[in-house]
Please model this.
Amino acid sequence: MEILKASTDWAKAELFSTPFFILFGLVFIISSFGFWQLGKTDMAKAYIIPTLVAGVLLMIIGFGLFFTNKSRITQFETDFNTDASAFVASEIERAESTLKEYKTIVFTAIPLIIAVCALVLFFVNSPVWRASMITVIAMLVVILLIDGTAHARIDAYHKKLLSLENEIKE
Model:
């Protein structure tokens, strides 16, 4: 039963953090609206579309993760009551897969994309390109901030599952 509690606690913590994607998405969308209404320079006008796109993408990520984790909470109890050892094995496998994805995507690909965008800023002087690169960097930094804490949570959850797995087998 402690495994079920650990799983639901992890999912509830995810439910708390995913709205931050939505919040930052709203900030980007509001910024886009502000650039549209108040932007007088070419550079300010160049931010309208990139910040709107980044805001929509962050909102999609946030809502997708929120509804996925919300449905997962109720599914945990059903799966655990059906077959506890299979539930633990599948959760361990899912956590390990997610940890590998974080290593590859969040902590390798995203920093490389940020570096490429920063390099583009040095070589391109067009307002649209500069605004796009700065917006991409800002959006990816938001993703890094939120996913950094999510990585720590799923790593702790994975370790908890491994320690509790031995108790189920005994």
In short: The chain has a mean pLDDT of 93. Helices lie at 2-17, 19-38, 42-46, 48-82, 84-123, 127-169. Residues 2-169 form one domain. The radius of gyration is 20 Å.
